[in-house]
Amino acid sequence: MRQGDPLSPILFNIVADALRNLLDKAVKKEQLTGVLEDMVPRGISHIQYADDTVIMIDGSDKSIRNLKLILYCFEWLSGLKINFHKSEVFAFGVQQVEKEEMANKLNCVLGKLPMKYLGIPVSDSHLAMGAFDPLVQKMVKRLDLDQFLPL
Questions:
Q1: Is 53 in a helix, a strand, or coil?
Q2: In sequence order, which residues have a C-beta less than 8 Å from that of residue 32 and are 6 or more positions away?
Q3: Which of 12, 24, 85, 117 has the fewest CB neighbours in a 10 Å radius?
Q4: Predicted pLDDT of residue 47
């Protein structure tokens, strides 16, 4: 299929649903542990929007090992290639050494905050208004509001 083909997003969503099913089954069989287990039964293991997938696990060796296996199986089943070197690991509540070990186990880059998700800055601390300037400028440019907003 050619890039830009109208069927491409639909086919990708079908394949992304397969990944969702693999992750859901792994959580159900207790091979992965999601986050916020005390608030949501079995926790939250992933969120997906368009072509973005955020996977959230407890960081245990078992969950990391099983996640890596699931992702390799997903590659094999779908024919898609996950670029682990472009993927980032964010770990909270552990020492820097443990964060680096988790990223290395998954062959991913250790991410830094603030990060951008869907173009919006996300951080674990308060962000100044200036952090949103690129987003505001992009909106002004797209909406051609230069004539209305003095910047």
A1: strand
A2: 23, 26, 45, 57, 63, 66, 67, 70
A3: 85
A4: 84
